[in-house]
Each structure stands twice: as C-alpha cells, then as structure tokens.
Amino acid sequence: MKVLVVGSGGREHTLIWKLKQSKKVDNIFCAPGNGGISKIAKCVNIKADNIRALADFAARNKIHLTVVGPEAPLAAGIADEFTKRKLKVFAPDKSASQLESSKVFSKEFMRKYHIPTAAFKVFTTAAEAIGFCRTVEYPVVIKADGLAAGKGAVVVKNAEQATATIENMMVKKQFGSAGDTILVESFLQGQEISVMALTDGKTIVPLLASQDHKQAFDGDRGPNTGGMGAYCPTGFATDEIMTRINDYVLAPTLSGLNKEGITYKGVLYAGLMITPGGPKVLEYNCRFGDPETQVVLPLLRTDLYELMMAVVNRKLASIGQLSWRNDSAACVVMASKGYPGNYTTGVKIGGLPNKDDNNCVVFHAGTVYKNSQYMTSGGRVLGVVGLDKNLQLALNRAYRTVNKIKFEGARYRKDIGFRVLNLKRK
Ligand SMILES: Nc1ncnc2c1ncn2[C@@H]1O[C@H](COP(=O)(O)OP(=O)(O)O)[C@@H](O)[C@H]1O
Ligand SMILES: [Mg+2]
Questions:
Q1: Is the distance from CB of 289 to CB of 354 less than 8 angstroms?
Q2: Is the minimum distance from the CB of 139 to ligand 1 under 6 angstroms?
Q3: Which of 117, 151, 161, 244 is the most exposed place for a label (fewest CB within 10 A)?
Q4: Which of these CATH numbers, 3.90.600.10, 3.40.50.1000, 3.40.640.10, 3.90.1150.10, describes 328-425?
C-alpha cells in the first residue's frame, strides 16, 4: 500500500517511522518532509496547506491513505476535499476540526455536554473584556478564539496585564482575525497531561497518556515553545484518572459530537489539567501532538496502518485492545540558538548515530539533507527518544545520544521528566 503523510516536523517523522513498520505499507511519501524524513520516505515538494495539490498528488499516485499531521490543513478542510474526491484520509473534517480551530466553539461544546473545563466568558469587544477583567480574581487565562500557532493563550496576573493582552489580541490584532473574539477563563491548578485518542465517530480508544515540557528553560521557566521534551507513560495518569477521563471526557465528547451531527474520524487530543476536583479539559486538538507523538508511538505495538485504516473505514471496534510495549519513552528536543525567539539556521549537524536501534531513535524536526550533510533549518531541530524499563533509564539513553550530537548553538533542557521523577522521590 502507498501512504502519504502531510507535514514536516518530528511528529511526521515519527508517524512515518511507525507506519513503515507495518507489513502492509510498501511506499511512503511525505509532503513536504524534512532531512531526516527524506531517508525513510520520498519527499514531495508540496506545502502542507496546499490542499488541492495534495489531493491531486494522492489521486495521481493512487495513494491508499493520506495521514495529516498539522492543524492548519484540517481547519482549511483537507478531509472534506479528499473525501469529496473519494480519497481516503486520516483526518477530521472541517466541522469536526472546530474543536481545535475555535476555542469558543470547543468551550461552548463542553458547556453544553457537561464536559469538565474551566469556567469562562466570551467577548467580542475589547472594552467589555477589559471591564470584566476589573472584576475577576487573578490569575486568569486569556485566549484568542482562533488558531495562533500555540501563542494564543496567556496567563495574566493582574488587571494591567489583562488589559495589555486584550489590547494586543483585539485592537492591535497580534493574531489577525484569530483574536476578533476572545475568552477569559479561570486558572486551573494541577498537573497537565495529554491524552490522544483514536476515534472513528463510533468508538473512541485512548492511547497512553503523556506529558510534555513547554517552557524553554530548566525548571519549567522562560517563554513557551512548541515543546522541549516529553515522556510516556506518566505517573500522574493513574488507572483511576484514566477511567475518569474516559467516562467524563472522551465518551461524552464523542456522544456530543454525534448529537451535533459531526462524524469525527482521526485523533482527538485532550489537553487536561488533573485538578483536585478531577481531570478538566484545557483544550482539544484535532491531531497528534508534537512532541507527544514521539514518545507515544514508539511504545505502540499494534500496527498503525491497520489502526488508521480502521478509523477511516469506521471499523475501529474490530481492532480490540491495543498492544503496548511495557516500557517508558522519553524525548529530549534539541533546539537552535535563540529558539523560541529569532533563531539561527543553516548550521551543520554532527555526531548523529549511524543508525537507530530499538531503544534510541532520533526524530528530525527542523533539518535538511544537502551535499551528504544534515543542516539545521528550524527552531526545534531534533527529538532524541530513549526507551527503557523506566523513565530514568529512558532519559539516560536519550541524554547519552544528545551528548554526542553537536551543532553550533544547540540548546536542550537537562531536566526532562523532573515532575514525575520528583513524584517518585516523595
Ligand atoms: N484554564 C487554565 N488554567 C491553567 N493553565 C492553563 C489554562 N488554560 C491554558 N493553560 C496553560 O496554557 C497552555 C496553552 O493553552 P491551550 O488552551 O492549550 O492553548 P494553545 O495550545 O492553543 O496555545 C496550556 O498548555 C496550559 O499550560
Ligand atoms: Mg495547547
């Protein structure tokens, strides 16, 4: 079978690496891909948001399954276009993708179907939002309604910060029309975990829960990034918590979608805060997380191609229980100098392992392969994943490899996993 994966980051490298393990997959294409991906798939020069060109490519090359990585093409209707042309695609359609593309849609959906989430209010004018923020207890979280590349949620500690944030979003249009409408929501305290689940609109199957580190610097300090590391499983996702997430979040989300007349096919990602009052949804994403995918999929034993086809053909129930490797996975992201601000690119990468093994894999995010040499091309460059019996051993493996990889200005966090490791020490 021929598969096309859309996207160009570490998540897509991982999806391709996992799909290649399927006996059913003969050929993988990636649009547009990156340096590391070009070693295991055929990269085609089509941007992830060029939906028409992607559908033309899939039709012309008789692609059996297209898997979409990033959110932008989902919101732009890639699944609708493929389905219209009778091309199989692992991606929710435009209406389903509103769970991610509109935070107002998702919060109102949660309110309607009694899915636990932070209290919130919606505003369409800056004056009303600022007025409301004079009356609240701090901190609160201010969120732009639309897609803002992970920068649209801001925790504010006082009315002054709230006013500045609201003005940036609604008056200065920092995120363009994504900030025309905003939310003000109450601040939740607890451990943040991610649960990705596969659904065909009838059955919903959670994958193992994971945690990531969003801040740039050790101790979870500094500016937010796309993610500096992740690990799976996490000690915070106990069986009891997972049961609650299933009963109070995943199951009602699926039934709510069906009541809205929405057939969701693909991955539904719930970002959750485990509060003293139980798990609450921070947000939904309609795709695999990055770097969460890098630690979840290497532990999956079940054939990913078969799973994805079961989702697309709405036969997920026939798959039964998923099978997992009884180990931990840890990912350490190596980033370019300056990231997440302005960063350097175009520097040579040395010291990469000659080949991956069962217990250490290097997934490429921002690299190109030119003149027999890998070069950096993005903010996040590599995700080094170690696998072993427990988190500490998995981290040791990842860091041993990280220490061998060299590129000028390379920066990574040295404390990935500390929240769980501290928990064990207590
Ligand atoms: N209500 C909340 N309480 C506490 N922290 C929050 C809340 N909402 C969001 N956050 C924090 O902000 C981050 C980004 O918010 P999120 O809703 O996931 O938006 P996005 O990923 O689209 O930027 C979350 O990962 C979480 O750490
Ligand atoms: Mg988020």
A1: no
A2: no
A3: 151
A4: 3.90.600.10
